[in-house]
Amino acid sequence: MNRRGKYVVTFPSLPTVISTAACVGKTEGEGPLAEYFDIVNENDGVGSSTWERAEAALVKQAAGLAIQKAGLKTKDIDIAFAGDLLNQCTASTFGLRETEIPLAGLFGACSTFALALIMASVAVDGGLADKALAEASSHFCSAEKQFRYPLEYGGQRTPTAQRTVTGAGAAVIAKERDGVKITHGMVGRVTDYGVTDMANMGAAMAPSAARTIADFLNDTGSRPADFDMILTGDLGSVGSSLLNEVLREEYGFDISRVHADCGNLIFDAEAQDVHAGGSGCGCSASVVCSYILPKMQRKELRKVLFAGTGALMSPLTALQGDTIPAVTHAVMFCS
Amino acid sequence: MNRRGKYVVTFPSLPTVISTAACVGKTEGEGPLAEYFDIVNENDGVGSSTWERAEAALVKQAAGLAIQKAGLKTKDIDIAFAGDLLNQCTASTFGLRETEIPLAGLFGACSTFALALIMASVAVDGGLADKALAEASSHFCSAEKQFRYPLEYGGQRTPTAQRTVTGAGAAVIAKERDGVKITHGMVGRVTDYGVTDMANMGAAMAPSAARTIADFLNDTGSRPADFDMILTGDLGSVGSSLLNEVLREEYGFDISRVHADCGNLIFDAEAQDVHAGGSGCGCSASVVCSYILPKMQRKELRKVLFAGTGALMSPLTALQGDTIPAVTHAVMFCS
Predict the structure, then answer these.
(1) Angle separating helix axes B112-126 and A112-126, nearest 10 degrees
(2) Shared-domain flag, residues B83 and B30
(3) What residues of A are in contact with residue B93 (Cβ under 8 Å)?
(4) Residues of the domain holding A287
(5) Which of A103, A137, A147, A322 to mutate against chain B (most B CBs within 10 Å)?
(6) What is the pTM of this model?
């Protein structure tokens, strides 16, 4: 790896995405990206007896399928970088438990998939692994239960609230000639603008996304127009507006022509009544693995900056009156 | 990095531990390692209004001190790898929030410090960072509250139970000529022998520790006698006996002459009434950063294999009747 500016690294060996898989729930399968997912589960239980086991089952599905699509066996994978939103990250642990793949657990809230892609690229570029798996997941029901209210309570959601995506995305990274390349990576700094509203994650994460995107553009001497797409993780509609505003006013960058957000892409906000869009570690993981990377593989997009956003509070820190810190990790894909 | 055998990597540039710091609570400061800790806080509140903030304060103390002891400023640190046991890893996030250091969050339960050392070495060896911080923390009170009973309840603990260490350990890793070298790293596989007793973590983790240690010895063609110490994270007294038994009977290795365990070292089990010993991410982090690495720096130990052990359940998975998976990550130090 070579450092580029203060925060960005380049991967000279060009780690390659050799396969991806995205496995989602019923609501995601009724949204605009339905045709791109590998598996749309008929119900969100995914054949399991608890919501947490259902999320672990999604992790298992996506990992197994990504490995199979790469023409590999689990024993061929040298390391997995994975994480999720559940307390003690049990979806990843339980989902990958039987694979026997060495597991480096990550936590970055909804930025986890971007962090996993960076660490998998670091592993492959540096020689830690020949083949690395990057994965992240979330589940609407396990997240509602843990972060908000029991589902049975039927709580009303505010207009700024996002819907946690039921889904897992997995990618296999290796040194190969053909496929989408991961050329740059950037681990973000924690950013806290003092937002305290747990029902407005987009607002909490937008300043962090702006900072990482601005740092990335500055460190690499790029302009927004150099990219086919600057893709944020899950800011949703509220956070996306704020991101564009902060980037323009604080950093002097206008990304509006190339900006897209996984939280806006995955649902039809009006038809599906999801308020401000999708969220959760599984949101960007499943969108990037189903829609973005295959599109790049087909050369319909050539240069994409993916900035995965995460809000780093817990229900307890919120109850204790703490503000919501956020982090944004970025990877650049080229095809 | 070069792969060695199936699971081990070597770090040809020999990433070096250039400084360490360990900051602990009152009980730890009354134990056998009292004189080695950098800061023994007079009370476990660490000047904070909640136990969670107290743990974050320990993270901040240890990071600040390790960086200062290295003669550096926070802006000189390119990346931090850190994690803890709290839901959504908030001790690390909130503790490092103001440092402006790019933060890659890790989760490996009590194995987190070993994982952080591996990832910091990977980062430095591969060129992701010139200087990397590895850190982990835990707090008796925040852990009891989250994993067991409210402190005020005064619950009785079983003889196999361990006491979560109140402490944080941090190390700065860089390419330098002088200091303890990290020569090898190994990310472990999830191992589950079907233990379900949340009050016997040692038993849940011992088979995982045995597997990682055996894999490490096999991959590197080493024998236990090649090491001055094989140090496990926090198996405590019950888990340590089981480790020795499993290693002997299942893998044919006798490590009894060189084995030590951070959970046994940090407390005087009888005098301090801590039952089976210490545990928590902060246990191995504070023991390694206060006692082991400085001892190696003084050449009183030359070759140490540190196997950090983690139990990967959550209170919820335990209530749902799931078994306790475990993972053990290993690093080898030479001086």
Answers:
(1) 60
(2) yes
(3) 190, 312, 325, 327
(4) 180-334
(5) A103
(6) 0.98
